[in-house]
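Module 6 notes. Inverse folding takes a fixed backbone as the condition and produces residue identities as the prediction. Think of it as a translation problem where the source language is geometry and the target language is the twenty amino acids. Below is one complete input and output pair. Work through it position by position during the lab.
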């Protein structure tokens, strides 16, 4: 019986030594064609925005800061005019009486009353009140910030150069009238200081305080070679 010899043609050509197999014709069957722009400068135009930018106008601030017009909760109000209270009037009647292009009905009394005390004010007056309010809030925050002590961190095993920088920073804060908190603590993964080094550091700090005329406002809180806090200030 004669045997039939069947030759199966491989899908991929055998690569010659030193060459790469040619499979580009197979890859193109499975990778879809890109129909969009690939230029970086043009593709950037089609990116979706990450978030919306919210613009707050002066009128938005006015509406958020004051109880005005239809936002007044009581149906009847008493208008304050010339430091006197008028007879109760329907809120919507009062709104019809004023020029609303530049005027508002402002609630003066706190919420919860049966008849709110109101005043007719111009928009420019509301802007002035808002500016005064924001200025007062900034002044309070600034005062709180100034009262908060400045903090300087020191390692018990601090080097001589770093100590000089910390001393200079300490002197600058103290001469500006600031209260300073010196936070002394060992640093992780660094050399631990010896008791002699810790004593020398405290001595150097106290000599600097004496030099600039400052003093500790309270005894040192904490323990040597562990965490400790010194609060100092020029009297």
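Target side of the pair, the amino acids:
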């Amino acid at each position: 019986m004669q045997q039939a010899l069947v030759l199966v043609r491989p899908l991929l050509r055998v690569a010659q030594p030193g060459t790469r197999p040619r499979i580009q014709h197979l890859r193109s069957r499975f990778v879809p064609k890109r129909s969009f722009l690939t230029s970086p400068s043009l593709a950037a135009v089609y990116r979706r925005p990450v978030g919306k930018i919210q613009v707050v106008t002066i009128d938005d601030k006015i509406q958020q800061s004051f109880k005005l017009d239809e936002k007044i909760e009581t149906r009847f109000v008493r208008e304050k005019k010339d430091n006197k209270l008028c007879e109760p009037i329907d809120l919507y009647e009062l709104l019809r009486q004023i020029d609303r292009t530049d005027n508002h009905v402002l609630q003066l009394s706190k919420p919860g009353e049966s008849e709110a005390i109101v005043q007719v004010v111009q928009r420019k007056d509301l802007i002035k009140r808002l500016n005064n309010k924001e200025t007062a809030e900034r002044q309070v925050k600034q005062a709180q910030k100034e009262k908060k002590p400045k903090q300087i961190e020191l390692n018990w095993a601090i080097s001589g150069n770093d100590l000089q920088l910390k001393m200079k920073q300490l002197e600058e804060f103290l001469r500006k009238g600031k209260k300073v908190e010196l936070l002394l603590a060992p640093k992780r993964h660094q050399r631990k200081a010896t008791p002699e080094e810790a004593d020398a550091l405290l001595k150097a700090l106290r000599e600097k305080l004496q030099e600039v005329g400052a003093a500790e406002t309270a005894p040192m809180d904490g323990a040597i070679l562990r965490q400790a806090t010194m609060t100092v200030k020029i009297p």
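Reference fact for the lab report: The longest strand covers residues 116-122.
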